[in-house]
Design a protein that fits this description.
Number of domains: 1
CATH superfamily: BFD-like [2Fe-2S]-binding domain
Bound molecules: FE2/S2 (inorganic) cluster
Structural class: mainly alpha
Number of strands: 2
CATH topology: Arc Repressor Mutant, subunit A
Length: about 60
């Protein structure tokens, strides 16, 4: 994945790669990814963006 080391959530230092890893380990919803990574539990500004990111990754996995 390009941008793997880019941070998606700055408050909690959650990179794109960490989100992808959480999904690979079985997280199927944004809530489950949040439980595993802690994203979005600071300022909350990243939440909407990361939800789209997660949907994209899930969609890519299906195809
Ligand atoms: S950037 Fe994710 S909670 Fe602030």
């Amino acid at each position: 994945m390009k941008n793997a080391n880019k941070e998606a959530c700055h408050c909690k230092n959650v990179t794109y790669a960490k989100i992808q890893a959480a999904i690979r380990q079985g997280a199927k919803t944004p809530e489950e990814v949040q439980k595993r990574t802690g994203y979005g539990t600071g300022c909350g500004q990243c939440r909407e963006f990361i939800q789209y990111l997660i949907q994209d990754i899930l969609r890519e996995q299906e195809s």
